[in-house]
Amino acid sequence: MAYKISDECIGCGACAAQCPNNAISEGDTQYKIDPNKCTECVGFYDSPQCAGICPVEAPGSDPDKKESKDQLLAKFKKLNPDKTPK
Ligand code: SF4
User: Fewer beta carbons within 10 angstroms: which end of the chain, N or C?
Assistant: First the structure.
């Protein structure tokens, strides 16, 4: 499932630079994740990079955006046709 950023976000922006899919952008009051671009880092890394760097643990999986690993991998391939998944 795609990740989303909770209201705990303090707006530091540390996560945005870490996202390999450029799925994170600055919103009006906090950073936000485009679920159409988030692969939970599948294809790039073993774990979600935004969650790993956030100082307040704001990014977490979105229960409303459930996706299997195969679906996330398919999204990776669609977003990154020139890259080989790791
Ligand atoms: Fe980007 Fe990975 Fe966070 Fe999804 S889980 S928003 S792909 S850094």
Answer: C
